Structure formats: structure tokens, C-alpha cells
Amino acid sequence: MADKKEIQQKITELRDKLHHYNYKYYQESISEIPDYEFDMLLKELISLEDEYPEFNSPDSPSQRVGGTITKQFDTVVHKIPMLSLGNTYSKEELEDFDKRVAKGLEEEYEYFCELKFDGVAISLHYENGSLVRAVTRGDGTRGDDITNNARTIRTIPLKVRGEDYPDYFEARGEVFLPREGFNEINREREENGEALLANPRNAASGTLKMQDSGIVAKRKLDCYLYSYTGEDLPIESHEEGIKQLEKFGFNVSQTYRKCQNIEQVFAFINEWESRRVTLPLDIDGIVIKVNDIGQQQQLGFTAKSPRWAISYKYKAESSTTLLKEITYQVGRTGAVTPVANLEPVLLAGTTVKRASLHNANEIARLDLRVGDTVHVEKGGEIIPKITEVDLTQRKPGSEPVEYITHCPECGTELVRAEGEAVHYCPNTKGCPPQIKGTISHYTQRKAADIDSIGERTIELLYNKGLIHSIADLYDLSYDDIYQLEGFKDLSTKNLLEGIEASKNIPFENILFGLGIRFVGKTVAEKLAAHFKNIDNLARSNFEELIAVPEIGERIAQSVVDYFKDEDSIQLIERLKASGLKLEIEEKQQLQVSSVLDGKSFVVSGVFTHYGRDEIKEVIQQHGGKVVSAISGKVDILVAGENMGPSKKAKAEKLGVTIISEEEFQSMIDQK
């Protein structure tokens, strides 16, 4: 048996190494080891922690991967209130602020200027150098405990660097979703036929309140820290606090500046008004703080905000231009999106030629007409938007826009479901953009990962009549591909090899690649893990689907509808015949005890200490069997909160024993 001290030492060494590599990569942009080696070290650490849980620690790098389910977020009272700042859009008001500071201090002072990041305020609590709690701003007096989700953000230290830290302190900052990550999420949502997220800030806020930290980890949030606070900290200025955060290994944006007077503050504001477009996230202004902490205390607070700080907010960049025409795009799911084609105009550092109009409701709300002079804005949203029409410039005799009634690609009459704003082309099997979009979706990296085929190649194959569905990819021959424009021997072989390699792609990726509406990557993973193979999923009914954690009614109905369709059934059979893996590779079940041997269980409801899949796994680890439906053969129903009354009534009628989560825990503790 391995020596426990040696194991503990090995775990400590692995944690220290991974913390170091993580810091170098995320704070200094230095990759000291390849990603594969990092992943192998992390895998080794997780394996040791699973085998020796007595050495587990909340500041372990293994906590970055998420997986914890939070049923409800506890409310935490801030030790030091997180006050909001007074806002101004006027440099005259900023001068007035400076006069009030001068009058209140009657001595020399300096300012510390920082960018006002458009994210979600967070307070990170550290005890003995380790992260113990992360709390949202909330109402400024109390916020939500989101520690499990914050641990997944790789730029937040789980353990601070060095040893010269106080027993307790708070680091405050802003959690944000970088533009690149935001665009990626919206691309996936568009592919799944879901409504797009409005802006990165809302996306970051929603992500922090997700129950499954595993999903949060995949969103790749980031965090900039800008405040070091606590009781009796050995600092005399805000600048010293910032330097201390940098020393401890926190992610501090290197965009701050100390200013000796209000004129230097104005110069900083003017500089970043144009430079802000170069940042990986949005900012909506500049925060100006009196630097000296003693002077801050002297100036004090109003009821709502500090007298020693203020926020100067930039106005959203806007310009006017001519609406030349409105065109309509058809996406993979059949959603029709109107696009405003504009006279080119310079906005936020880029030339804008087009703006999304979202749907017919938006066109009607704006009362848009071709030939109108329109105001275009690029604020928190990534895509430019038309905010209003300059009616003084409207030409006499202009007519309101009539939204198209038929698909611009295939001529099919459009439909609009009750309660939805978007028009759809229902011709999923005959509309060219939908067919090509479905194939393109299937070949992407997160799905079948056929990287040797792009949109141009799909276009060529489709136009030649060689592919009409994803199953047709597996029937392509050398001669089919070689005849295409631009293809030679090597590129033809590469494409065929890529198609062949996709037969070894995991089931959950292929399931995502099928393009079932509302089934994104995460949903596909959950469905694959629950149903194990495509046949079980195809046979599942609505009730069985919504019983899967985080699968709602809309997703469940979409899956049921997909597998009712005869063409979908034929497609699955063709994929099977081509040799694709349409089942998950089962992991060997860890056997903990035999205390539940011979007993069959049904699990229903929401639990405090377990996710539903977790409690099922625990049952199996102790020898029990999990089934999906109540019958006379079931021994025990483990009932959580919000369990359906019909399931409980059926269990009582059949004499099935009903136990609570606490009673279940007592059963397995008897081992």
C-alpha cells in the first residue's frame, strides 16, 4: 500500500506545479509546458484526489473543471458594503467633482484612474491565502454566494502567490465574458435555433448564476480585479492595493494610470475613448478615485456612494447613414433574419455596412423605410444596431417595409409560431441554405470534426448533387471529390481520411452534430450520458426526457419530434451502417459497497446534496439498480423536492417504499 505521506506530498507537488503553470499562462501569456502535458498532470491530480479524498482541498486546481451542482445560492452580507458610484457624462460635472474634492481636503491630492469594465461586480474572500467565498454585488449590502462557479474562472487564484498576505482580505473586481467567447456562444445558439444573447454583460451575469459549475467552466469567463480591501491592511493608497493584488497573482488590467490633477484625468479619458475598441471586452467609461486612503476616509460617503470616487461614462458610439435596402438571410434552422444594408459609415473604429434588424417586430417598431436616414449605434452589443429613424430626412411618398411572406431561397411560405418573433422557412429538407447549413454544422470541430471540409467544399458537393444530407458524406468516393474545382490527389485523400476519422468521434459529439433544434453541445452531452445510445434516446418519450436534469419541455418536444420523422430514422440507420459510434463508451463502475445489492430504485425530484445523475451513480456504486419508471418491480423511490404527484401516487398504490434524501444517505452510511 502506498505511503500516505508520500501520496500527500505528491498531491501537493502537483497542485503547486499546476498553480504555477496556470499563473504563467493566464497572467504572463507564457506556455511553459504543452497543453497535453498540463492536462495529463491535472488528470493525475484528479485521480489521486478521487482515490484519497482525505487530502481534498477547495484551492486545488482540480476545482477549475467544475461539476458541482448548486441548488440555491445562499445570501451573504458584505462585511464592507459594495457601494455604487455616482455617474456623469459631462466633463463640466467632472470639474465640479474635482472642486468638491479640493474643498473637502484643502491639501494636495492625486487621482487613480481605471477603466470601467462592463461586467458583473464580484467580491472574493481569502482566508490564509485561499479563496473561501465569492459573492456577487447584489444590492450592495448583500449578494449571492457563487463560490463554486467562481472557482472555474482560471484567472481567479484559488491560492495567492507568495506568503506575505494577511489572514483575511477581499479582492473585488469585475467578471466578464470576452467578446470572442460571447460571439462563440451566440454562434452556437444561432445554430440551435435559440434566441441570441443580447450582450456580453448579460451573458456573464446569467452564467454566474447557473446551477451546474461544469457549464460555467465551459463558458470561459474572465475577471479583472481592481480593489484590495479588508481591516487594517498595511497600505496607504489605492495604488499600493493594486500593486499588492498584482504581487499575489491576481489578474489586474494594465490600463490604469495615476493622475496628478483633473487635466491629466481628462487626457486619460480622451485617450481611451478611441482606444477602447482594441480591448477584449467592453468598457463604458472611466472610474476616477482619490488615491490616498486617508483622504478617502476624510471625504467619506453619501448615503449611496463614496465622495472620493466618480464614474465618467462614455456615450455609445453613434452615427447616421442611409438605409439602402433590406435583405433576408436563411439560417440552418430555417430562421429568417432581416439585414439592413447601409451606406458605409465609420463607427467604433470599423466601417459598418450592415446591421441586424432581428425580426419583423423590430422593423415595425422602428417604422423603417428604404431610403431612410437612420441612427446606427455600437454600444454594449457586438453587432451594430439601428436605434431610430431621422424623420426630418424622410423622403415624401416612402412606403413602410412589408416583411416577406415566402422564403427568399426556396419560395416556401414562411411560418411564425405563436409567441415567437422570428419567421421560419418550414422546408427543412428542400431549402438549400438549411441543407448546407446542417452539413456544415455536422462537420464542425465540436461535432464530427471533419476539418478538411469547409463551406466552399460543401457548396461544390451540393451543387454537383453529391450530398443532400450528412449521411451522403460517407458515400463519397475518390472520383466524386477529385472532380471538384481546386481538388488534387492530396486534398482528395485528406478529405476522405477526415470523413473516415469521424467514425471514431464520441457519440455526444455526433448527437450534437445532428442539428436537432435546441440541442446544443452541453444538452447533447447530458442526453448521451443519460440514455447511453441513440436507440434509447430515439425510444424515449416526453416524460422520460424532461426527467433528465436541465432538459426542459421545449428541448424534450424537439427531440421527440425529431425521432418521429421517418427521414431522421433513415438518416440514423445510414450513419450506423457507415460505422459511426452512436453509443457512449461506458466507464468501469467503481464499486464502493454491496449495501444496496438486489434493490431497484427510481430517483425523482431535486436534491440538496446530489445532482440527479450523481445520486444514480451512488446507487450503482453501492450495488443498487436504477430504473426510469415506477412499476411493481421497483423497491424504493428516492423522493426529492418538486417530485411529480402522479409518480408518488403510483408508488404508493404499488406499495413502493418512498424515502427522502436523508434516509437514502443513512442507508449507504450503513456500509
UniProtKB/TrEMBL annotation:
Active site: 116 (n6-amp-lysine intermediate)
Residue span, BRCT domain: 591-671
InterPro entries xrefs: BRCT_dom, BRCT_dom_sf, DisA/LigA_HHH, DNA_ligase, DNA_ligase_AS, DNA_ligase_CS, DNAligase_adenylation, DNAligase_N
Positions bound to NAD(+): 35-39, 84-85, 114, 137, 174, 289, 313
Binding site for Zn(2+): 407, 410, 431
Catalytic activity: NAD(+) + (deoxyribonucleotide)n-3'-hydroxyl + 5'-phospho-(deoxyribonucleotide)m = (deoxyribonucleotide)n+m + AMP + beta-nicotinamide D-nucleotide
Keyword annotations from UniProtKB, A to Z: DNA damage, DNA repair, DNA replication, Ligase, Magnesium, Manganese, Metal-binding, NAD, Zinc
SMART domains: BRCT, HhH1, LIGANc
Origin: domain of life: Bacteria
Signal peptide limits: none
Family classification: Belongs to the NAD-dependent DNA ligase family. LigA subfamily.
Listed name of the protein: DNA ligase
